[in-house]
Amino acid sequence: MTAHTEQVLDQKGRPLRDLRISVTDRCNFRCTYCMPAEIFGPDYPFLPKGELLSFEELERLASLFVKAFGVEKIRLTGGEPLMRKDMPDLVEKLARIPGLRDIAMTTNGVLLPVYAEKLKKAGLKRVTISLDSLEDARFKAINGRGIPVSKVLDGIEAAKQAGLGIKINMVVQKGVNEKDILPMARYFKEKGHILRFIEFMDVGNSNEWKRNAVVTKADIIGLLNEEVPIEPVDPNYKGEVAERYRYFDGSGEVGFISSVSDAFCGTCNRARLSAKGELFTCLFASSGFDLRSLVRSGKSDQELAGAISSVWRNRTDQYSLDRALSKAAPRKKVEMSYIGG
Ligand code: SAM
Ligand code: SF4
Ligand code: SF4
């Protein structure tokens, strides 16, 4: 932290550490659990270009988060971040920010053969690539666009060739892709990439989430233990979202993002910037704070930092914890594709 860095704590004593930036609300997939095709159809009102934060605005806000609050990690997401034109240019701008240690991206991977090398050259360190099945028929149905598995595997290979760090995200849904848990574990164990199992979440308002459609961390551990036993490993740092496990045979790790069965709100230190420049302090929030208006009305860095600080200090979010305690009141939530995962 520099002399000008302010350690802000929210109402529950949680610091602001990570920033996730959604660079677009558009996507070339229509995953049933995120942007179901029936709702995100041809007439869906995606944001026009002028509504998106420009790269210059993103660079300014990102560097403010780093300089003023000590944020060291930024993740670019969406929608599909690689649908936004010239992403390597944005990465290059962000990579120049002094004090920013790590830039990562979450992507569905299909555009990585085009961009992986340019992104790496620009300063991207790691990609998390989402893949829910190795079986074509199932994957095509889940992604809603008939995209074959090979397109994502090509993306993973391109990331590997470019020298990017790689993790794989798999959202597991009961009755949809439970059968894929073991094949995915075997495949990525062999490839040497960390696979993270994500519990299906009630993000947004359109994925018809039901508690009984969640395959929990405990279910998955039980299944893995029958064939490829795993044991827990200490987190790399406080507030790490994925719980780490390693294979007994020393052949690598898997992770669990279990926000339903084991909520981690107590250590949640992530701020999210939506594609149109709203600051969200929870994935399940109904609304965000409009930073774009402040940026576009000529406010100084100090004024912007003051606004961010005040939003964070007032933060009380703990939706997943409340959900677990059956205390989460029904609310209209922001869509996942809009603020990113
Ligand atoms: N398009 C990119 C991708 O799919 O990787 C980035 C954005 S996507 C919203 C980020 C992550 O959120 C993905 O790994 C996706 O699988 C996950 N996700 C989306 N909807 C989800 C849900 N309802 N429950 C759990 N994870 C979800
Ligand atoms: Fe697109 Fe990612 Fe959402 Fe799938 S999970 S629809 S790839 S944003
Ligand atoms: Fe953080 Fe909100 Fe998720 Fe809890 S529910 S971990 S506060 S994003």
From TrEMBL:
Domain Radical SAM core: 11-231
Binding site for GTP: R20, R75, T106, K167, R270, A271, R272
GO biological process: Mo-molybdopterin cofactor biosynthetic process
Sites where the protein binds [4Fe-4S] cluster 2: C265, C268, C282
Catalytic activity: GTP + AH2 + S-adenosyl-L-methionine = (8S)-3',8-cyclo-7,8-dihydroguanosine 5'-triphosphate + 5'-deoxyadenosine + L-methionine + A + H(+)
Alphabetical UniProt keywords: 4Fe-4S, GTP-binding, Iron, Iron-sulfur, Lyase, Metal-binding, Molybdenum cofactor biosynthesis, Nucleotide-binding, S-adenosyl-L-methionine
Cofactor requirement: [4Fe-4S] cluster
SMART domains for this protein: Elp3 (SM00729)
A GO molecular-function annotation: cyclic pyranopterin monophosphate synthase activity
EC number annotated for this UniProt entry: 4.1.99.22
Cofactor descriptive note: Binds 2 [4Fe-4S] clusters. Binds 1 [4Fe-4S] cluster coordinated with 3 cysteines and an exchangeable S-adenosyl-L-methionine and 1 [4Fe-4S] cluster coordinated with 3 cysteines and the GTP-derived substrate.
Pathway the protein takes part in: Cofactor biosynthesis; molybdopterin biosynthesis
Keyword presence, Lyase: yes
Binding-site residues for [4Fe-4S] cluster 1, renumbered to this chain: C27, C31, C34
PROSITE patterns found in the cross-reference section: MOAA_NIFB_PQQE, RADICAL_SAM
Domain of life assignment: Bacteria
Residue numbers binding S-adenosyl-L-methionine: Y33, G79, S130, M201
EC class of the enzyme, as a word: lyase
HAMAP family: MoaA_B (MF_01225_B)
Family of the protein in this entry: Belongs to the radical SAM superfamily. MoaA family.
Function, in words: Catalyzes the cyclization of GTP to (8S)-3',8-cyclo-7,8-dihydroguanosine 5'-triphosphate.
Complex formation: Monomer and homodimer.
PANTHER family in UniProt: MOLYBDENUM COFACTOR BIOSYNTHESIS PROTEIN 1 (PTHR22960:SF0), MOLYBDOPTERIN COFACTOR SYNTHESIS PROTEIN A (PTHR22960)
Protein name per its UniProtKB record: GTP 3',8-cyclase
